[in-house]
Amino acid sequence: MEAHKKTRTIYVRNVPVGGGHPVVVQSMTKTDTADIRSTVKQIKSLESCGCEIIRLAVPDMDAAKALGKIKKLITIPMIADIHFDWRLALEAIKQSVDGLRINPGNIGAKWKIQEVITAVQDKGIPIRIGVNAGSLEKELLRKYGHTAPEALVESAARHIRMLEEFSFSNIKVSLKASDVLKTIEAYRLFSERYDYPLHIGISEAGPPSVGIIKSSVGLGILLSEGIGDTIRVSLTADPREEVRVAYAILGSLGLRQRGVNIISCPTCGRCKIDLRSLVTKVEKRVKKLQSPMTIAVMGCVVNGPGEARDADFGMAGGKGRGIVFRKGEIIKRVREEELLDALLEEIGKGGEVW
Asked: Hey, how many other C-beta atoms are within 10 angstroms of the C-beta on 5?
């Protein structure tokens, strides 16, 4: 792991982003923003699983006018995602959003950009410049011949200059593509030139079966190089899955841990129990626990405690019997059918409430 690249600190309401603060996990609602009830319900479910910032699409004025009511009913900071119409940005600011995601280049004339900047400056609202390979400026596509990483960085640089012309620097930046390698290289190039905090992600990553892999590889590489101050995992799935995967990525790198980390062996000829079924049951029972801990579910009583000696709690099964252990030390021996309950009982002794 490389040291974290030094970036400026900005605040999305009370959440610090950049400057060496913990990497912030965020997601985006998948409801119609104008449907206040459904949107609030989804945000609350995301709050409960650790989402720290939420972004909402604002495609029209009805959505923009709903933002204030939504904000009153949620806890975490809210960012409005705006494209093309500067009036939507102004209305979102009026509704007291905590941040904007825009591309200044598609907002229109300079006076429109200036109006937006003046409004956010008055309220201390940050702007994320969101560069996306799918919406690069046509002249950059002609210049580079394709969506090259250099084109993404040049687009970001143009947008930064637009804002800096109005003495505005309360900025974070993203440079996303669905291509993992292009995304990695774009962020590397940008981080060499600028100290603005970075929102990292792989855009249109796909369904969980492939999206989790793309995001884990792309974001994992960047984070291991010290690049990235806030992340969103983009999946065609329930947004709670995005948050879960984000924390799993951060946890695997030792950057942050929330909830339970389950380790389990792949099984081999020594395994005499239905380990796959047992792992599924453990995962289901402990998924709501928020305390950071590692639980091991092993298929071999011979090597299990040794291989998982760093786990906070664990169990290992043999033929008809098994053991429960803590930090590699065997606590009890029980029948196979009692393993799950015995493990949960030990975890409960640690203060967890089921």
From this structure: 20
Distance between CA atoms of residues 179 and 300, nearest Å? 41
Residues 6+ apart with CB under 8 A from 5: 191, 225, 226, 227
DSSP conformation class of 198: B
* 219: nearest Cα among 198, 245, 249: 249
Reported as a single tens digit per residue, the pLDDT across 62-118 is 999 999 999 999 999 999 999 889 999 999 999 999 999 987 667 778 888 899 999
In this structure, how many other beta carbons lie within 10 angstroms of the beta carbon of residue 259? 19
Smallest Cα–Cα separation from 228: which of 14, 29, 26?
A: 26
CB 49 within 8 A of CB 242: no
- Return d(Cα 152, Cα 337) in angstroms, integer: 56
Helix, strand, or coil here: 136?
A: coil
Q: What is the DSSP letter of 291?
A: S
Burial class of residue 192 in the structure, from the number of CB atoms within 10 Å of its CB (0-12 exposed, 13-18 middle, 19+ buried): exposed
